[in-house]
């Protein structure tokens, strides 16, 4: 990432966004962990808002307001240019704790923006647990 916050989206991520016809992404604070933000295509964000608004009647008004703050008020649409760069604002970089590097972490239909060292620390226990669980996976017979 350069000093102005410009960062190139990885090619695999751009390919997915191109496939849904998105010229920008929407960045949301992660609701469960303060060290990263979630990035969605506009299509995925629209579905999230629709799902959220349909659940309004089931929510306590205070809960609804708290969730609206996270997924509507704090949402940041960020365009990317024709070479796949997006600009992360200074305040967003500060929220995530980014300086000159950002790690993109794919998570199915979304991806995450992390400060690399924070991601390494977050991921370490999961990697160890994954190694233990992997011992129970049977790979024989897969074609």
Q: What keyword list fits this structure?
A:
single chain, alpha+beta, Chemotaxis protein chec, 5-stranded antiparallel beta sheet, two-stranded antiparallel ribbon
Explained architecture:
By secondary structure, the protein is an alpha+beta fold. The protein has one domain: Transcriptional regulator MraZ domain (Chemotaxis protein chec, 3-Layer(aba) Sandwich), CATH 3.40.1550. Strands 4-2-3-7-6 form a five-stranded antiparallel sheet. The chain has a two-stranded antiparallel ribbon with strand order 1-5. Strand 2 and strand 3 form a beta hairpin. It starts with 5 loop residues before the first strand and ends in a 9-residue tail after the last helix. The mean pLDDT is 85.
| Radius of gyration over all CA atoms, rounded | 17 Å
Task: Show unreliable segments.
Answer: none
Annotation, overall tally of beta strands: 7
DSSP strand content: 15-25%
Question: How many independent structural domains?
Answer: 1
CATH fold annotation:
Chemotaxis protein chec
CATH 4th-level superfamily: Transcriptional regulator MraZ domain
Mind telling me which CATH architecture this is? Answer: 3-Layer(aba) Sandwich
Mean pLDDT: 85
Shape: globular
- SS content category: alpha+beta
Order of helices and strands: EHEEHHEEHEEH
Oligomer state equals single chain
Can you give the helix content as a percent range?
40-55%
């Amino acid at each position: 990432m350069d000093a102005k916050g410009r960062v190139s989206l990885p090619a695999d991520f751009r390919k997915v966004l191109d496939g849904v016809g998105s010229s920008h992404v929407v960045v949301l604070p992660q609701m469960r962990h303060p060290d990263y933000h979630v990035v969605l295509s506009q299509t995925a964000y629209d579905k999230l808002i629709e799902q959220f608004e349909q659940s309004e009647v089931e929510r306590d008004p205070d809960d609804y307001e708290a969730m609206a703050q996270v997924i509507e008020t704090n949402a940041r649409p960020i365009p990317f240019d024709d070479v796949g760069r997006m600009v992360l604002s200074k305040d967003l970089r500060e929220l995530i704790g980014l300086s000159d590097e950002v790690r993109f972490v794919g998570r199915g239909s979304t991806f995450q923006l992390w400060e690399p060292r924070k991601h390494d620390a977050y991921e370490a226990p999961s990697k160890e647990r994954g190694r233990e669980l992997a011992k129970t996976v049977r790979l024989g017979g897969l074609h």
